[in-house]
Every structure is written in structure tokens, then in C-alpha cells.
Specification:
alpha/beta, Rossmann fold, binds phosphoric acid mono(formamide)ester, 2 domains, 8 strands, four-stranded parallel beta sheet
Length: 290
């Protein structure tokens, strides 16, 4: 069964092969399942990019999709995740995409006989986000080995930071963290934000995840922007070849200035575009090897 739960389940060769397949879709490869396959999207947490780029990816492959309205489903009557997923297996889904607030929710679903693609689990993993980040980096630099990436912000609550640290390190990149101490996970790899700006190839900004902690942030939005926000002025310190990434959604005027979002160095919308190609590659692989 081809499942994508966490990227640490895939070796470097397999990750490069997924990226090759995503690149082929980016270069115009066509696959058409002629409406014979159904992808079911189950999002138990809010999402715009991941949900609708999975949906777009499935539609581009000629699949049909079900976008489950969890708020009006039997989940509200207490149905467990396992029983909900078992239902979609029973009614004939060919691929199931799941986002859930519980870390490692997929551990409860190991017996399901339909490929599952993880759209994010709590603060744990966001494999498809990392793959689209890697595709964007590979398109930009042509390689991973030796590249320096600084991830800035709410590291502790970010599944993007956790997934990217693990996979980028395996791919030979140097990963640094920066941000307020209340969002730090230990002090290892921590660097001062502004002093490191001219050293790195990638500045990856993160949103403060207010939904995962009541009021952990000690800084006001204005203070955060001053200390850790990427402004046009600070952007000028970056290497000529360096790029800016953000998984989004972003808070303009907090971790990123309005003018930086669509600046020359920003690859934020390229990341979103690549999200469709990565998800096409994974759905196609799941349907081929399901
Ligand atoms: N990057 C990301 O996961 O965005 P969504 O929460 O909108 O899916």
C-alpha cells in the first residue's frame, strides 16, 4: 500500500524520485484517469492551500473528488476517525487525503486498504508541504547539498519546521532556526535572525500558530515585526541569489512585510503552484501502486 504518512518513511532516493515525477507534471506531463477514480479529501482542520491543491491535482489527473464537510458529518455525532475512514474505504474511495489535529493520527489507520496521503497531522508532519518546498528549492538551485536554510518563527508548533528539518538535513542542507524563545525547541541550531540574513540561501518564514496555543506569544505584532519580520530593508541584507519562502497563510505586517510577499526574492506563489504538481505525483503513484 502506498501511503504518505511522514517523509522519514522515505529514503533520499525515493524522495528524489517523487520530485522527479512532480517535475514531470510541472513540465507538462499528462495523465488522465477519465473519471474512473475518486479522491476523498477529509480535512478535520482548516486548510485552503493543501485542501484545494489536492483537489486541483486530482481534477487535473481526471479523477473525481469528494470534499467532505466534516462540520456537518457524523464526526459531530462522535464517530471516530478510524470509523469515518473505514466508511470511505467501504464506499469505494481510491485515495484518501487527511488533515487532522492529532499528531500521528495515521497510527490508528494502518489497517485501511486505501492509500492515505497525509495533509498534515497536528504539530508533527506536513510531508506534501515539505515536498513542494524541496521541489521549489531544487528548481532554484539544482541541488540540496550544502544549501543553508534559516527557518524563522513558531518552530515549536510548526509541522513544516519539523518535517523540513528532518528531510533537509538528510539531503545535506544546513538548517538553522530563529525566532522568539517561547517558540524554541531547545537552543541547538538557533541563530540571531538579522545577523544570519546574509549567510543563508533560503529564508523560510513561519506564521505564529495562535490556534495551537492560547497566548504564548509575549511580543506584540508590532514588536514581532520589528525583531523577526522580514522587511524590505532587511531583505536587502540577503545574498543576491537567496530566496524567501513561506508555507502560508502569512500575516502581512507580522512575520513578513506587505512589500516582501510579492518581491523578486519571494517564491511563495511558486511554492503554491508546485503544491499541485507534487500532489499530482503522489495521487498518481497511489493510484498506480495502491
Ligand atoms: N501551507 C498550508 O498547509 O496551508 P493550508 O493550511 O492553507 O493548507
Amino acid at each position: 500500500m502506498f501511503n504518505v504518512f511522514r517523509l522519514s518513511d522515505f529514503d533520499v532516493k525515493e524522495i528524489q524520485s517523487i520530485l522527479d515525477s512532480a517535475q514531470a507534471f510541472a513540465d507538462g506531463k499528462k495523465v488522465d484517469y477519465q473519471g474512473q477514480k475518486v479522491v476523498s479529501n477529509l480535512f478535520f482542520e482548516p486548510s485552503t492551500r493543501t485542501h484545494y491543491s489536492f483537489d486541483m491535482a486530482a481534477l487535473r489527473l481526471g479523477c473525481k473528488t469528494q470534499n467532505v464537510d466534516v462540520a456537518n458529518s457524523s464526526v459531530q455525532k462522535g464517530e471516530t476517525l478510524y470509523d469515518t475512514v473505514k466508511l470511505f474505504e467501504a464506499i469505494g474511495s481510491d485515495v484518501i487525503v487527511i488533515r487532522h489535529s492529532q499528531n500521528n493520527y495515521f497510527e490508528d489507520l494502518k489497517g485501511i486498504q486505501v492509500p492515505i496521503l497525509n495533509g498534515g497531522d497536528g504539530t508533527g508532519n506536513h510531508p506534501t508541504q515539505s515536498l513542494l518546498d524541496l521541489l521549489t528549492i531544487r528548481q532554484e538551485f539544482g541541488h540540496f547539498e550544502g544549501l543553508k536554510c534559516m527557518i524563522v518563527g513558531d518552530i515549536k508548533h510548526s509541522r513544516v519546521a519539523h518535517t523540513n528539518y528532518e528531510v533537509m538535513t538528510r539531503l545535506g542542507m544546513e538548517v538553522y532556526f530563529s525566532g522568539p524563545e517561547e517558540f524554541a525547541e531547545g537552543q541547538e541550531h538557533y541563530v540571531p535572525f538579522e545577523e544570519m540574513l546574509d549567510q543563508v540561501d533560503i529564508v523560510m518564514l513561519l506564521r505564529v500558530q495562535h490556534e495551537r496555543h492560547a497566548s504564548l506569544m509575549k511580543l506584540s505584532k508590532e514588536e514581532y515585526h520589528k525583531r523577526y519580520g522580514l522587511t524590505v530593508e532587511k531583505m536587502k541584507k540577503m545574498k543576491e541569489t537567496a530566496i524567501i519562502m513561506h508555507p502560508a497563510p502569512f500575516n502581512r505586517g507580522v512575520e513578513i512585510a506587505d512589500d516582501v510577499v510579492e518581491s523578486e526574492k519571494s517564491r511563495i506563489f511558486k511554492q503554491m503552484k508546485n503544491g499541485v504538481f507534487v500532489r499530482m505525483a503522489l495521487i498518481d503513484k497511489a493510484l498506480q501502486h495502491g
